Fold this protein.
Amino acid sequence: MAQAEPGYLVDPYKDWAEGEGIPIHVDFGHDLLALETGPWERYGARGCFAHTKGMGDFMSNYVLEVEARKNTEVVRHLYEAFFFVLAGHGSTVVWLPDGTQRSFEFGPKALFAIPLNCRYQIFNGSSSEPVRLSVTNNAPLTINLYHNLDFVFANEFDFRDRVSDPKYFDGEGQHNVYNQSSVKVQNVWETNFVHDLTSFKLYEFEGRGRGSMNVNFILAEGTMHSHVSQMPVGRYKKGHRHAAGTHVHAVDGEGYSLLWYEGDEEFVELPWRHGIMYTPPFWMYHQHFNTGDTPARYVACSLGSRRYPFIALRRRSAEGAGAVSVSKGGRQIEYEEQDPRVHRKFLDELAKTGVASEMGDLFDEPAIRALPESALTGVIQTPVSTGPAV
């Protein structure tokens, strides 16, 4: 692209990121455990930006790395951020608006959030191993809105209403259930800190596929959303699409994801293992598959929480519309509507891992295995939408 003229088409977030002096990686998805980092003066640690093709206008991600026996500077910022621990053990200290401190220890696959604009500091508790965190945030929205870095990083205003119950820093929380009269029931856990996403209790969410499990998080009374979902052994999720900016992290398990736009003839395929993060671009279909011998979990972070949905698409998701078929005005592809090559590929991949399919109750699998190659080419089949799927 041509260079923008001074004072015209300015992108304050992009300018800020380039001015931080750390590596900027841009791709469809990333292995966050493998990305190169560099010294980051702002944090007094190491870091890099992990930008994705589908990050959209509001959300982004950076990797923060704290070396053994070291700690970050004390920082604060006016954007929200969720921290997913990729590797290592450490602790965090948070200074609350009333002058008190809260601290908590974390290990691999923990998830936490800092209440808005609170000062915080992260410590590495190991004498030999670095701590590496994935930080999903709405800095693009915040920096582009105010385009004043002092206002974003040196703002003294205290958001006392964002602190919530101090016990939320200990991993305690509150469980609420919404849409109870619907098959799109929403289980929501409100907290600031989740010790381990691999063992956290999940709830049935049949709307995304038989055996699917899920829980939504409200973290630090924020406008950002997060949820953890699980795929059982021998099964996979239904295809769906939504707004840009949803950063999907594989937590555990083995498999892959497929992505495609209406009219595409080929899928984009991404591997499924801990450390992989990607962001489906706006309105691009995507589907997650478990090919391993254990359940597979992922955590997704996006703009628009179950309490503060922010945009119409997120509000409709909270109401359950995200689990409604495209053919009925929703955003999901039901199993009976999907292209046959989706299940054929799944069976082929299971053959490589030796795991048995548990989806013979939904598909005529011998017939799908027998399909000729001519039936597995051309434009990817998707149902016809019946209206504005918001």
